[in-house]
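Colleagues,

Please find the record for the two-part complex below.
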Amino acid sequence: MTDTNTQKKPIKKKETIDPNAPFLRIEKLNKFYGDLHVLKNISLSVKKGEVVVIIGASGSGKSTLLRCVNFLEKTKNGKIYIEGKRIRNQEKQLNKVRQELGMVFQHFNLFPHMTVVQNVMEGLVQVKGLHKEKARERALDLLEQVGLSDKAEIYPSMLSGGQKQRVAIARALAMDPKIMLFDEPTSALDPELVGEVLTVMTDLAKQGMTMLVVTHEMWFAKEVADRVIFMDDGIILEEAPPEKMFSAPEHERTLEFLKQVLPPQSD
Amino acid sequence: MPMNILPWDLGAIPSRFFLFGEAAWYTVQITGLGVLLGLVIGLLVALGRLSTNKPLSAVARAYIFLIRGTPLLVQLFIVYYGLTSVVTIAPIPSAVIALGVHNGAYIAEIFRGSIQSIHYGQMEAARSLGMPKGKAMRRIILPQAFKRAVPSLGNQLIIALKDSSLASTIAVPELMLRGRQMGSSTFMYMEMFVIVGIWYLLMTSVLSYVIHRIETRLKVSDRD
């Protein structure tokens, strides 16, 4: 079912059969806002089960990159492949593909007119066509997983920021995504609420979820990431395992950035 | 008696008040049906206006431009008198159509504003679940937009109720016409139009109260 859209021409068929392909591959992606060149020829791959964390100063293009992956930002310049299959800017295919790409936003974007459990059920019922009771069961399971079973029947406005973000994670997980995209998931939270969200994300990583995370939480990058990417001014300046990135970065610019965001005792 | 100082027979107001009941019911009916039609037209025009389909958006824009830029009375006469060479429409349906078409333009702008006021993150969240655009609009955006539109819609409903008095010019037996008839048959114009005014005031008061109740009710999911 999932790949019927793309198999009309033989060329595309060739793309679909590559068992060794990385789960997500971005090739020479460029993005412009008017004259502003925000992503400059970005190429990046994420393997199955890998946790890749993107760090960098604000305005470096890291959120834009993430949003390009599920086509919330559209660009004609560059290619994106999921499991070796080229994703095109085409409604039908995008609606399918987006189910496999769980997205968590900085500002949660929960649906305020629905209760917590309805938020989590919405995609299951409306997109996957699950029966309401089945969807509810699954939603309650997910809420338990993020520690919010007791909040199922209330509206999002009654939750703290950390709780909202955990619901948003549950909502994304409900679609059974193959990869989770996190766009600064803790940046809008009070400091004391950051931990609970990172804990949920760490658990996910431990369960083997493939993750692409844009964050300012260096602790998370250090402890959970398999690979850290440092973006600067629209390019990937440096890419390394966390141990190397945080102890011996290659570029002066990276060192400068890390000095600013890490507490002084960190070396 | 201090009452005799005034040149009017104020006692006629309570005694004739309920002779206007049937006329008031006509006012309620043409307003209600007119606004209902206006809601349907308004939603369609608002969605058309916001559509990425350029011709559709242009048609919606033209509709709002024409209807908002001309008086309701002109529209009413076009429907009732103007169309007679093509189709004859009875007074009451004419009034409902004209009120619907007229209010549709205003309601379209109310809906457009409230739809646009919903944060784009809501659409993004829905789309990122794989929801098609139309469904995201129906399931996520519109319920929130309707809620925000309620105060303005209430306002429009009250305006429509008062505007329905123009239907008296095409012989709809509503409040205003009744007032004129009663005035000319009794020569108590002041008393009769005061009665008409009180009826409108009563109805707008009830509407204000109901709208307020609806607003309070819809606040369930908001904290502040």
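Strands of chain A lie at 24-33, 36-46, 51-55, 79-82, 85-87, 101-104, 179-183, 210-214, 227-232, 235-240.

Comments are welcome before we finalize the supplementary table.
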